[in-house]
Design a protein that fits this description.
The complex is a heterodimer. Helices cover 27% and strands 33% of the residues of chain A. By secondary structure, chain A is of the alpha/beta class. The radius of gyration of chain A is 24 Å and the shape is elongated. Chain B has one domain. Chain B is elongated, with a radius of gyration of 22 Å. The chains are: A alpha/beta, B mainly alpha. The interface between A and B is medium-sized, with 27 and 32 residues.
């Protein structure tokens, strides 16, 4: 076979392969929306994080603004210390609240941020003071049954 | 009788160990002589045509059909839970993580690996390799190393094409034929597929498979008895051994790569 024809085919093959990789990276994988270099970290402490996992999204008003970077157990306060990595483009007031929520009834868990009214903004390594724990379904059912039993109890 | 069978066992053990040692030396020699494959890159390009470009048709068609079947079956199952929008996640993750690298590697082993073994085995049987040595041309540098690097470069490209084609097939069936919402198909896929965890690990897998398949194919060809029977036996062994090696390696790699996720 002619050498130039051969080169042409191999070149086309390599271009097609790289195009497929780019398609996978950009169209299928979206190349990680939050850039890790342009972000700041804040810590939120929860008494119960439910099924939250590292890399879970951090959302505010339903928009992904960051990711959960790290989850650790604090042996002194017996709380979970969750490190949130938030995109630098989004600044939040100091009195922002963090809550662990579930998308849908059985969906994945994420951290929801709700902005407060403070004029100063959260900085790197700051702590979010007001938090709301994950809703554990078993506790909820327990409360419900307990409430029903109280209703039915003789006065 | 007993002495005979013990002798037999001993002989087989020695043969097996000798083959492993020979394969290791062969692999090292191949790496040491890789300079030629890059200095005279034309040789490698020629082999990339035979291993990569000629495997394109089977890889693309299989990828399309695997993706279309995934789309159909995935829809059937997901629909019972009312979450057919997750079809994109199902198709993309199963292709990028597992099916893309593994099925492409199995096809590559039977399409290109067998051809490599038959070619080198026949070169040996017709004493072309000995003739090269007579002319002070190292057959490992001239014949083996370019084929090795051509296979290692081609394999990840073929696996990526397989995955891309499969996702396109899943899109055709899921969105165009069945009518899953196009926006949620892509957006759910994009939020679930991670570049490093899923796509990069898939590429690493396919590179490892490429190294394994081409090494096995080249070694079987180089080691084949110089007869018609020997070459045919070596070709069969290439396909069987490299397919099993791909499946076993896939399990090991998956256990290391995806243990931390979820």
């Amino acid at each position: 076979m002619n050498k130039t024809v051969l080169d042409l085919w191999v070149g086309l093959f390599v271009i097609a392969g790289i195009a497929a990789l780019l398609f996978l990276a950009l169209k299928v994988g979206s190349m990680s929306a939050v850039n890790t270099s342009d972000s700041y970290e804040v810590v939120a402490r929860f008494e119960n994080i439910g099924g939250l996992k590292p890399r879970a999204p951090v959302k505010s008003a339903g928009v992904v603004v960051g990711r959960v970077a790290d989850i650790r157990f604090d042996n002194e306060t017996y709380e979970a210390a969750v490190t949130l990595r938030v995109d630098k483009r989004y600044a939040f007031p100091k009195d922002t609240t963090a809550a662990i929520m579930t998308s849908g009834l059985l969906g994945e868990q994420y951290v929801g941020l709700e902005a407060g009214g403070d004029s100063s903004k959260l900085k790197d390594k700051d702590r979010i003071l007001i938090t709301q724990d994950a809703v554990v379904l078993e506790n909820l059912i327990g409360h419900f049954i307990y409430g029903k039993a109280q209703e039915g109890a003789p006065q | 009788m007993l002495k005979r069978s013990i002798e037999n066992l001993g002989n087989r053990t020695i043969q097996g160990v000798w083959r492993i040692g020979f394969a290791a030396r062969f692999f090292l020699a191949m790496l040491l002589h890789s300079g030629t494959a890059f200095r005279r890159f034309g040789l490698t390009i020629r082999e990339m045509y035979f291993t990569g470009v000629l495997s394109l048709i089977i890889i693309l068609v299989s990828g399309l059909f695997v993706g279309m079947v995934l789309g159909l079956q995935g829809y059937e199952t997901l629909q019972t839970y009312g979450s057919e929008e997750a079809l994109g996640i199902l198709v993309a993750l199963s292709l990028v993580r597992e099916l893309g690298p593994v099925v492409a590697a199995l096809l590559f082993a039977s399409r290109a690996g067998s051809a490599i073994t038959a070619e080198i085995g026949l070169m040996k049987a017709t004493e072309q390799l000995s003739a090269m040595e007579m002319m002070a041309v190292d057959p490992i540098a001239r014949v083996v190393a370019p084929r090795f690097w051509a296979g290692v470069i081609s394999m990840p490209l073929l696996a990526a094409l397989f995955s891309a084609m499969g996702i396109f097939g899943g899109y055709l069936v899921g969105v165009q034929l069945i009518g899953v919402d196009e926006g949620s198909f892509w957006s759910q896929m994009q939020s679930a597929v991670d570049f490093e965890q899923d796509i990069l690990n898939g590429v690493i897998k396919s590179v490892v498979f490429g190294v394994a398949i081409t090494t096995i194919a080249l070694f079987e060809g180089y080691d084949a008895p110089p007869t018609a029977e020997g070459v045919s036996g070596a070709t069969t062994r290439t396909v069987v051994t490299s397919s099993l090696a791909v499946l076993a390696l896939d399990f090991v790699l998956t256990a290391f790569m995806f243990r931390g996720i979820n």
